[in-house]
């Protein structure tokens, strides 16, 4: 039965011109990030395996430069599927590194660069609402913050109070600020 479904999907893809690429290489990869209860941990070696999507500079509250840099990666195939369908596929994983910055004058002008890792923000796409009892899952995503000292244990307790408020302006784009990520552009 599974081979018939795969063959049907490939035929539909061939006829419509849609590229089918898994968001995660296999279910085993996702299981190392999300356990059976929906508890999340940072993916191993994501910088080597994931695609760089883009970076954001958060302006300093006063003076020149930036106070933070946010550098974002997506699991393999996520950008391809987003460009093809305009949707993030189930199982897609987004990792945002959050750094404090150092600002200094250089020959090119005042430059801010990442200095100290503060932590990671992790999102896992789940349109099926697989973990209704876990307060870190909702609105089609798993949401979690990890302090730099421990990528295996989230410090988030409830996505609504800990995460969602920062994403309200991006609610129309599936809670993701897609305008900052060139690989998502069609």
TrEMBL record:
Residues 45-177 form the Cytochrome P460 domain. It comes from Dongia soli. The keyword Signal applies. Keywords: Signal. This is Cytochrome P460 family protein. Residues 1-25 form the signal peptide. It comes from the Bacteria. InterPro entries: Cytochrome_P460, Cytochrome_P460_sp.
